[in-house]
Amino acid sequence: AAGCWAGHVSRSAGIENVPIVPRKRRVYVFHCPEAVVREEPGVPMVFDPSGVWFRREGTCQVGHFVCGRAVGPDPDLEGTAEDLEAGSGDGFFEEKCWEHLAHRVPAFENIKVVNSWQGFYDYNKLDQNAIIGRHPEVEDFIFAAGFSGHGIQHTPAVGRAVAELVVEGKFQSIDLSRFGFERVLNGEPFLEAVCY
Fold it and tell me: What residues does the FAD dependent oxidoreductase domain cover (predicted)?
């Protein structure tokens, strides 16, 4: 339940070396005045190799798009509770997103950010995958954190698995032991490429 603060909460319980940190996630809404883009209804969600992504914003907002950049190992993205000032004025969009958008779609040269928001992901620095299960030494401490941005996709299964762990003492429906804290202690990442 601690989300991006799971590392901090773990330390308060005497558990060190939890590789989960708050990692900033920024999302921008921009407008593209170019008619060729405005009139094209079939713009898919696009992922650039740089990690920048964009998609069309709804069907009523003609020429509006949502974009962002995948959260990765860049330590500049780590943040604190004081870092939640949303807005495009911090230079991130211009420095990390705009060039890639304009390269991918030349009409995006003249875009204007019209809205933005940001928050934190619970980023697992070991392998960007969740830590799920009991701590091997502090058995009353159960992890379900470190999803690095894709936790919403796993929530139903993880909720069931953790409930089974609490009630039955073990995973039953789905064996999630590969996501246990032991891999952190052993320095053995559970890698999965291209996870957005």
Answer: 1-165
